[in-house]
Design a protein that fits this description.
about 100 residues; four-stranded parallel β-sheet; 4 helices; about 40% helix; alpha/beta; Rossmann fold; 4 strands
Length: about 100
C-alpha cells in the first residue's frame, strides 16, 4: 500500500516513514510545501492530511487531483499515535476489501 502524508512536523518526517514501513506501506512525506507537489504525489492508495500543519493551497492542489480510488483521511493531530491509528484502520480496510 502506498501512502502520502501531507503536513506534520519536519523533525518527525523520518518517524512517519518508519511507522508506515512497520505497517507494510511505502510512504512519501511532505511536511512543507514544495514545487510540483501534484506531480510528486503520484497515485497513492492513501493520502493522510495533517490539517493543523498543512496549507490550504497544498490541500487543494493534491485533493483536486486524486484518483477516485484513493482513500483520504484528515487528522487535526500530527502525532505518532494518530498516524498509528490511521494506518491500523486503513490497512485493515485494505485487507478486508
Amino acid at each position: 500500500m502506498s501512502v502520502v502524508i501531507l503536513g506534520g512536523n519536519e523533525c518527525m518526517e523520518r518517524k512517519y516513514s518508519d511507522m508506515c514501513r512497520e505497517y507494510g506501506c511505502s510512504a512519501k512525506v511532505f511536511c512543507k510545501p514544495c514545487a510540483n507537489i501534484r506531480d510528486r504525489v503520484g497515485a497513492p492508495d492513501l493520502v493522510i492530511l495533517f490539517t493543523n500543519t498543512v496549507s490550504h493551497k497544498v490541500v487543494r492542489t493534491v485533493v483536486d487531483n486524486l484518483n477516485k480510488d484513493t482513500m483520504l483521511v484528515r487528522s487535526h493531530s500530527s502525532s505518532m499515535a494518530s498516524l498509528q491509528k490511521i494506518l491500523k484502520e486503513s490497512t485493515e480496510e485494505a485487507i478486508s476489501a
